[in-house]
Amino acid sequence: MHQVFAPQGLIYVMAQLPVYPHLSIHRLEKRLQTIPTWLVALVAFLLLSVLIVFIRAEEANLLSWEATLMAPKQVIKLLIEDAEAIALVVAVILYVKGAPDRKAQKHYEAWRVVDTAAAANVTTSYARYQALLDLHQDGVSLQWLEAPNANLSNIVLPKADLRECHLQGANLQNANLRGANLQGADLTGANLSHANLVGSNLTAADLREANLRGAVLWKAQLWDADLAYAELRWAELHREQLAGANLDATILPDGSVCSAEAPAFVDASEPRLLE
């Protein structure tokens, strides 16, 4: 008689399989997506069929697998009786298999909303606002985003990839851009008042005439940023963060006006512009 493994035995065997912590779920998912859908469905059907026959054979007290194979009509009957269960499980497997495709379609639709709003020069669009939140939540890069003059006040995009985006004239008041990468971004005339820009990368960003009043800029990188005619009144940052930035006619946190020729005009006694 062939040995029959109980479910507990199967669980024990699976528990003994080696675990590879370096193989992330994302990488495993990508590898699974390379398998053709028809092959996944076929394998799932065969495995379920074998499992059902195995369970039914045990319930019928058949002595061996050979006894089951000797009765093909009985096997077919068993599969027909459980066809609904098999179809349901296969459908679930195929649904999971198609998840990345549905996510890609979702991202495509979100980008279409964003691009449509930009093309129509719509300033306030809840659909665009939500689309950007969804894209960011799914870890999609927002590099080269086109949203000039967009109303994005209070938007929450921490650690977002916004490199070389076009947000000139955009309303980003009270926005959470903590740790965001805004390297090379066009933010000319943008309203960033009271925005959270802690640890953000604003290297080479164009901030001419931008409103940064009350913005929190601790540890923000401003090297080679253009802050000409920008307002930093009451902004929170360290004095050395302004080194390497264009400060031509920039209004500093203490209300004084700086110039590119005399950046040392920064008042070190100002409490919000710390040494």
Explained architecture:
The chain is mainly alpha-helical. Helices cover 38% and strands 1% of the residues. The protein is built from 8 helices and 2 strands, in the order H-H-H-H-H-H-H-H-E-E. The protein has helices spanning 7-15, 25-33, 37-59, 65-69, 72-81, 83-97, 99-119, 126-137, and strands at residues 237-238, 273-274. It has a two-stranded parallel ribbon with strand order 1-2. Helix 3 runs antiparallel to helix 6. The protein is elongated and about 95 Å long.
Give me some keywords for this one.
275 residues; 1% strand; 38% helix; two-stranded parallel ribbon; 2 strands; mainly alpha; elongated
Low-confidence stretches: 1-23, 264-275
Describe the global form. Answer: elongated
| Largest beta-sheet characterization | 2 strands, parallel
- How many strand elements? 2
Strand and helix order: HHHHHHHHEE
Overall radius of gyration: 30 Å
What is the percent of helical residues? 25-40%
Give the class from helix and strand content and strand pairing: mainly alpha
Average the pLDDT over all residues and give the rounded result. 81
Count of individual helical segments: 8
Strand order within the widest sheet? 1-2
Report the portion of residues in β strands. Answer: under 5%
Oligomer: single chain
Quote the distance from N terminus to C terminus.
Answer: 83 Å
